[in-house]
Amino acid sequence: MKHPRAVLLGAQAGTGFLPVCDHYSGVEARMRKSLQLQAQLMQEFGACVFDVTLDCEDGAPVGGEAEHAELVVSLALQAAPGARVAVRVHPVDHPAFDQDVATVAGKAGARLCHVMIPKVESPADLDRASRALDAAGAAHLPLHALIESPAAVHRAFDIAAHPRLQSLSFGLMDFVSAHGGAIPSDGMGITGQFTHPLVVRAKLEIASACHAHGKVPSHGVVTEFRDHAAFAEAARKAARELGFTRMWSIHPDQIRPIVEAFAPGAEEVETAAAVLTAAQQAQWAPISFRGKLEDRASYRYHWQVLERAHQTGRHLPAEAQRWFGSAPGH
Predict the structure, then answer these.
(1) Long-range contacts of range 184-193, CB-CB < 8 Å, 24 or more positions apart?
(2) Residue 16 pLDDT class (50, 70, 90 cuts)
(3) How many Å apart are CA 263 and CA 236, to the nearest integer?
(4) Disulfide-capable partner of 54 in 72, 149, 198, 278 (CB 3.0 to 4.6 Å)?
(5) Is the pLDDT of residue 10 over 70?
(6) 321-328 average pLDDT score
C-alpha cells in the first residue's frame, strides 16, 4: 500500500515539516547550553523538537564579527549527531555578510540545517544570499528569512515563492519601530502584538504567504518569558489562531511551552490515525467515518496532524507508527 506522503500531494501538503521551535542564542555560554539542552530533549522525546540557531547578527560584538563567526563554526562542528543547528548571519547589505557566509557556511556548511537571513526586503535579497552560499560551497543549504518592515510584509508572497526559501519569520520589534510611533509600544508586548490590527495583519500576511507556497511560517519573538501562563497562551494563539506552525524561543524556559502549544492533542492524533488507516484500506477513496464524510482533502489534514505529532515527540498509535518507519513509496 502506498505511503500517505506519496498520495496526499499538492501545494499545501508539500509544506515542509520542521521542528516547531527555533531557539536563538548568541552568547558563547548560552550557545553551548542550547546545544546541550537540544541533545537532552532529543533523548527525552525521541525526536529533535527544536532547532538551535547560533546568532552572528545580534550575538557578535561590533568589531568582533570574524571571531564570532569562527566560534559559531567550532560550536556547530561539535554538535551531537542528529542535532539540527542553524546560523543567523548579518543582513545581505551589512559589511560582515560575505565574511559570515564564507566562514560559517564554508567551514561548517555540511553540519548546518539552514541559514537565516535577517531584514529581507525582497526576493533579490534571497538571490544575493543564494549566490553567497553557492560560492561558499553550500549550495545544499536552504534559506530562512526574517521579514521586519511594512514594505517586506507587502512583498511577503513574492518572498515566500523563492525556490531556495524554506521558512519565513516575522520580526516584531523592527516592524513596530518602522511605523514611527503609529503603533504604541505595547504592540511589541505579549498582549498588544496579538491585538493591534497592523501587527496582526502582518502576521496573517506572512502565514498566508507561506501556506500559499508550501513554506513554514515561523512566529517570532515574545520577549516576556517569566510569566509562563501568559507565554503559553501566546504560543497557543500563534498556533491555533494565526496559522503559524513554528515559533522562536529566546530563553530555554520557552521551549517546552512552544512544543506543547504546537503539538496536536492525544484525541486528535488518535482520530487522525484511525481515519487514515480506514482511508488507506479504501485505496484513498472517500469513506464514511463516525457518520461524517472523509475524502482526500480531510486525509491531507489528518496526515499533517500525524506529521506534527511525530515532530513533537507525541505518542503515535501502533497503526500510525508504521508510516514513520518506512519509505514513502511503500
Answers:
(1) 188/223, 189/224, 190/222, 190/223, 190/224, 190/227, 190/230, 190/231, 190/234, 191/230, 193/222
(2) low
(3) 10
(4) 72
(5) no
(6) 71
